[in-house]
Design goal:
- The protein is mostly beta strands.
- It has a single domain, classed as CheA-289, Domain 4 (OB fold (Dihydrolipoamide Acetyltransferase, E2P)).
- It is built from two helices and 13 strands; from the N terminus they run E-E-E-E-E-E-E-H-E-E-E-E-E-E-H.
- Strand 6 and strand 7 (63-69) form a beta hairpin.
- The longest helix has 15 residues, at 144-158.
């Protein structure tokens, strides 16, 4: 299939770009447009009474952000090698949120034909928008807004 379409002398591509990252042994992805930046794990200030998966608050060039450990939130055993850990700063519209991941893998350019719907298995996984087929592996496409919205409210209540 040709990923390019020509419409009125304008060529468009039927694909999306994602940032792929690892949590434990699994691969996940987020739309690249929702990623503000990727940084090494900074020093964080703990938040009393916050859920256990909230790492704390960090200062990003004068902005105070909440940092959440996605591995703990999703009950995923973290990789033993912490040298590749990173923090992805998500742009959720009104606010920025940092999430700790085991490693940043790569930027993916995925044709829409390779984005499959999530099988109907569990309503608790509403944050999974689809499955990206990448060569011989599957990558879960997540929506950080759905995944983290309730957590941000809990942190604001605890603070």
């Amino acid at each position: 299939m040709n990923p390019f379409k020509q419409t009125n002398d304008v060529i468009t591509v039927d694909s999306k770009r994602f940032l792929e990252f690892a949590l434990g042994k699994e691969s996940y992805a987020i739309e690249l447009l929702k990623v503000k930046e990727v940084i090494t794990p900074p020093e964080m200030t703990p938040i009393p009474k916050a859920p256990s998966y909230v790492c704390g608050l960090m200062n990003l060039r004068g902005l105070v952000l909440t940092v959440i450990d996605l591995r703990k939130k999703l009950s995923i055993t973290p990789s033993e090698d912490t040298s590749q850990n990173g923090v992805i700063i998500f742009d959720l519209g009104e606010r920025l949120v940092g999430v700790v991941v085991d490693s940043i893998q790569r930027v993916l350019n995925v044709e829409e034909d390779n984005i499959k719907p999530v099988p109907d298995s569990d309503k608790n996984n509403s944050y999974i928008l689809g499955v990206l087929q990448q060569e011989s592996k599957l990558v879960m496409w997540i929506d950080p807004s759905i995944l983290l919205d309730a957590d941000i409210r809990k942190v604001q209540e605890a603070a």
